[in-house]
Amino acid sequence: MKTTQSSVNISTGSPGNEYLDVFDSTAQSPCLPLLATAIGYKLRRAQLAVFQDFQRSFACVKLRPTEFAVLSLIATNPGQKQTEVAEQLGIKRANFVALMDCLETRGLAERRKGDIDRRSHSLHLTAKGSDFIAEISKLWAQHEKRIIERLGGRRQ
Amino acid sequence: MKTTQSSVNISTGSPGNEYLDVFDSTAQSPCLPLLATAIGYKLRRAQLAVFQDFQRSFACVKLRPTEFAVLSLIATNPGQKQTEVAEQLGIKRANFVALMDCLETRGLAERRKGDIDRRSHSLHLTAKGSDFIAEISKLWAQHEKRIIERLGGRRQ
DNA sequence: TATTGTTATACTCTATAACTATA
DNA sequence: TATAGTTATAGAGTATAACAATA
């Protein structure tokens, strides 16, 4: 199978539902026999349920899934170019600007002018950003644990 | 586990990527160790990849995933109230209006004034709508088959 | 001439409030 | 007064084109 970088985008997800029953494969709604077998439909509802759990979990620190992904990517691979990070997440470089502005304004990450190529910005966490990640790591662990439990058990 | 109706919404999904490598669990990008273990991230990318395949598959008949879901729901349970169908898909009734307008304008589905409660509209397929579903059923089967193959094999 | 980051803009999807007509 | 459908509108997320600075 291909291992080429996909360009799907990871943002979006709206709050509102209380239940993650979409994971319950025994919940064969009599109203959705066609849709219930649709993989994309199941995936979509599962994804939204997980994102909504994320949003509830991280509302206290005002962090969205996309922002989490960006911080996580910068933390893991500091110094990458702005466009590189955007591309890894399937975000257009034009749309990445405001996202990065926000993280920079909050003091969590920063752009540094490239020494060699002065057009590019390399991305780094600030000290505050590192602290922030440490601070939210427990929230993250709890969120993932909750999702795994709903899914039925354990990560393989 | 709860079997309450979830209110997550099924729309959204943007075109653009060529590969569904997000399904390849062996594709552990060295750049995403944190994200690669994030269930929501995996789900989001998988869902987008599936929706993009849907969009490519159904572009020829100009049908979006959400419209497909609505038609499928009306076909399965004709006569339901407009708000009932919207709620089953996690779509706000206000946003369902334009969606239904579109299907009605295309002659695929219709609203009928309720006899008892004249505020409500019951939803039905037209003859053309039934034909349309028959016409696209092969596209649907091919799409699902493609996704299942990418996922690694077979439906349990 | 090509690329990086940026701005501006349009389009889609989603959420809320308020209206109308019925109940 | 409450509900079904509708309208209007605001906010996200996403896509494209075009620009300045740099290569």
Question: In CATH terms, what is the fold-level topology of chain A?
Answer: Arc Repressor Mutant, subunit A
Strand content of chain A: 5-15%
Name the shape of chain A in a single word. globular
Going by helix content, strand content and strand pairing, the class of chain A is mainly alpha
The assigned CATH architecture of chain A is Orthogonal Bundle
Characterize the biggest β-sheet of chain A.
2 strands, antiparallel
Q: How much helix, percentage-wise, in residues of chain A?
A: 40-55%
Average pLDDT of chain A, rounded to a whole number, is: 83
Protein described:
The structure is a homodimer of 156-residue chains. Chain A has 156 residues and is mainly α. Chain A has a single domain (21-151), classed as Arc Repressor Mutant, subunit A, CATH 1.10.10. Chain A is built from six helices and two strands. In chain A, strands 1-2 form a two-stranded antiparallel ribbon. In chain A, helix 2 packs across helix 6. Chains A and B meet through helix 1, helix 2, helix 3 and helix 6 of A and helix 1, helix 2, helix 3 and helix 6 of B. Chain A binds a DNA duplex (23 and 23 nucleotides) through residues 9, 11-12, 14, 16, 66, 81-83, 91-97, 111, 114, 117-121.
